[in-house]
Amino acid sequence: MMTRKEIDAALKKRPSKRWSGEPGLGSVYGEEEIQAALDAVKDSMNYEKGFGFTSQPIVDFENAFANYVGTKHAIAVNSCGPGIDIVMRFLKLEPGDEVIVPPCNFIAAPISVYGNGGQVVWGDVIKETLELDPADVERKITPRTRAIFPVHMNGLSAPVNELLAVAARHPECRCGAPVVICDAARACGGGYDGGKIGKAGLATIFSLHTMKNITTLGEGGMITTDSDELATYARAVRMYGGGVEAWGTSNVMTKVQAAVGIVQLAKLDGFIADRRRLAKQRDELLSGIPEIRTPVEPADCVHSYYLYTCQVIDEWAGEKREKLIEMLDTEYGFRCGRANPPVYWGRKQLADCTDCTKTPISDLLGNTIFCPPIHPAMPEDDNRYICAAIADAVEKLRD
Ligand SMILES: Cc1ncc(COP(=O)(O)O)c(C=O)c1O
Questions:
Q1: How far is it, in rounded angstroms, from Cα 391 to Cα 378?
Q2: Number of folded domains in the chain?
């Protein structure tokens, strides 16, 4: 908790840069990435060789990634969204087949269920963590449930073991116990159950987009799985489906991206350590403000703090939360994200799936969450300034 004196001192050191809630580059790039990209380009300036299809840096990056996560396979793709689609296509959903998805989410998972002919079923989230709630999932399982699809929200792992246990209790479903698929777009490098995120369930899909914990030149994704069948399918359909007689298009990662990915992956634990140092400092500095809840970290998780997700108290939901975000922007000079209100708030086709499956916690969180900026390269003075600004603004907003 900051004293008034500490708040005033921290506010005098206004950051030189205007931080945003989700910085445009979530990672840090150095000379090593530039050199790796140059080397990969130079290696391709050969008429016999070119940039190749599945060239060595892609194989090396996949092996390094699988080794890092602890899975048998890692399959590189051009971004997380197509990776999700590939896994969803593998399920061969039939009309009426259901997939349970949390609404506090990016649109990628639910829109993929929708696009692959499945029925989206909303599973509400746990208020403290924003993660898919196993108890609500159990309530919503029907004989048509094919998959449970949590997102590792904002860098924290979903309670995957509990979700797997729920699935295992329902072998009566049309195709047997539902599979668990995880969207780890925001959680690369996070930990769960003594290991890294990405091991549990049928498959996990990561994003290597520019804003994420590491990036392969702005776009990229990775599917991790222990399933030989899914790995064979994914490798085939990311390149037009040859060998598995399935529809596919081109969803490959380039050799230059993979070369940079190898360098970024080696730095990932360092980036996570920096995010965690700032987050823990922030937990301390923001403690004792009754109107603000800081993110929680369950004992079996190592939060990667892709985002630092705060909540205002329920009484401040809506208007007061908005006022706080606006003040932090206009008076204190940094932007906060709202990650994420229920996706059905903004997409009619998804809202149309909502009628029979109420998710009141997600609806509340949509009006209480706010994510002040965090980044591995953020100076500690900027971190203190952000906390002081939140404390100061909250004080002004009190009646
Ligand atoms: C939770 C989540 N899932 C999926 C995606 C899609 O990732 P990509 O841009 O790599 O396709 C994002 C991207 O922001 C995301 O935040």
A1: 19
A2: 2
Q: Whose CA is nearest to atom 12 of ligand 1?
A: 185
CA 188 from centre of chain: 8
Mutate to test the pocket of ligand 1, among 113, 205, 207, 223 (most ligand atoms within 8 A of CB): 207
Do 312 and 188 lie in one domain? The reply is no
**Nearest CA-CA partner of 215 in 27, 22, 391:** 27
H or E stretch including 303? Answer: none
Do 224 and 308 sit in the same domain of this protein?
no
Parent domain of 91: 31-263
Ligand 1 mean position to 219 CA, how many Å?
Answer: 10
pLDDT digits (tens, 9 = 90+) for 143-192: 999 999 999 999 999 999 999 999 999 999 999 999 999 999 999 999 99
* CB burial of residue 20 (10 Å; 0-12, 13-18, 19+): middle
Inform me whether the pLDDT recorded for 355 exceeds 80: no
Q: For 30-55, what is each residue's pLDDT tens digit? A: 999 999 999 999 999 999 899 988 89
Compute, in angstroms, the gap from residue 265 CA to the centroid of ligand 1.
18
Best mutation site among 25, 27, 80 for ligand 1 pocket (most ligand atoms within 8 Å of CB): 80
Q: Record the tokens describing residue 100, joined without a space.
A: 């349970």
pTM above 0.90, yes or no: yes
pLDDT tens-digit series, residues 337-347: 999 999 999 99
Q: Which residues line ligand 1 (CB under 6 A)?
A: 79-81, 106, 108, 151, 183, 185-186, 207, 209, 221
One domain, residues 54 and 9? no
